[in-house]
Amino acid sequence: MSSENKSQTYPDVRFSGSASGRPLAVVTGASSGIGYELAIQFARHGYDLLIVSGSDAIDNAAAQLKDFNVDVVAVRHDLTQEAEVDAFCNDIRAIGRPIAAAALNAGVGVGGKFYETDLCRELDLIKLNVVSTVHVAKHLVQYMIEQGEGGKILFTSSVAAAAPGPYEAVYAASKAFVQSFALAMRHELKEKGIQVTSLQPGPTDTNFFHRADMDNTKVGVSEKDDPAEVARQGFEALMSEKDHVVAGSAKNHMMTTDLIPDALKISQHADMAKPGGASNIQGGPRD
Description:
Blueprint: H1 3-6, E1 24-28, H2 33-44, E2 48-53, H3 57-65, E3 72-76, H4 82-95, E4 101-104, H5 119-147, E5 151-156, H6 169-189, E6 194-200, H7 208-211, H8 218-221, H9 227-239, E7 244-246, H10 250-254, H11 262-273
Helix pairs in contact: 2-9, 4-5, 5-6
């Protein structure tokens, strides 16, 4: 499907009426999962919202978020496409309001053995997880600095950033990039009054693993964290100006601790993400 069919550009993005007096937050990947739950957190705490996704579901998400009595604008863009990222950044400026906070959450995974996985899907993963994150961040940061009111930025990284991830090799590498980038931006932007936090979720109960073709892995069939709880922890960490938060269950902290050697982390990740691994679990899917 072409990007023209998958996305929609709004050349004149407006909130209804005059500025509400509420702060404004931008959330990417907000149609479902952690991104949608992050949008709920902002709305619940009195933020108007500009939300984006490449999915038609973004309109339904917007309708539900308006139940929090905040203004919500939803735009649809395929952020794997450079021109569409530019269009989204133009949407941000077209609003004409300071951005108080942003959650750069859009991302996808691809599971499987690297020599068997589809190259185009992995290149799109890099475009979304890495390239669009840098692209949007550049515009957001410059816009925040121009506005002169500071701001807060939350990057969704992953516990997978802590070590190489066999059978999710490109995904884990992309999140290692996001983690490094977020912490570097935190240091650089302090003098501009912009606070940066990295959110590191573990396996979370979203559509991520299905979309990544990981239904027949141990992690695909395992118990997962509640995306609402992950988002709550991420939001609170951002508001508390923490550098990062490992969200979800206690086992996620074990995946990021320096007390465990990288070789063991790699082995554990391989065991959980190996294709067909769910067949070794009683009740798991079988080929």
